[in-house]
UniProtKB/TrEMBL annotation:
KW Protease (keyword) present: no
Keywords carried by this UniProt record: Disulfide bond, EGF-like domain, Glycoprotein, Repeat, Signal
Record domain EGF-like: where: 1-26, 28-56
Alphabetical list of SMART domains matching this protein: EGF_CA (SM00179)
The protein's name in its UniProt record: EGF-like domain-containing protein
PROSITE patterns: ASX_HYDROXYL (PS00010), EGF_1 (PS00022), EGF_3 (PS50026), EGF_CA (PS01187)
GO cellular component entries: plasma membrane; protein-containing complex
Coiled coil (residue ranges): none
Length: 56
């Protein structure tokens, strides 16, 4: 993400990329938290994306 310091109040604010959140973009968002895979597929979390691994 990109962090800037406000010149008026000296507070830092950060704009995070879609894969991260938190005050300083330190938290990786878990794209698997909503259980997007169906039919027993295993969700593998990535940066801003996920992959479903199908059972054999």
């Amino acid at each position: 993400g990109t962090c800037i310091i406000n010149s008026e109040d000296k507070r830092e604010s950060c704009l995070c990329s879609k894969a991260f959140s938190g005050d300083r973009c330190q938290v990786n968002i878990d794209e698997c938290s909503s259980s997007p895979c169906r039919h027993g597929g295993l969700c593998i979390d990535g940066l801003g994306e996920f992959i479903c691994s199908c059972p054999e």
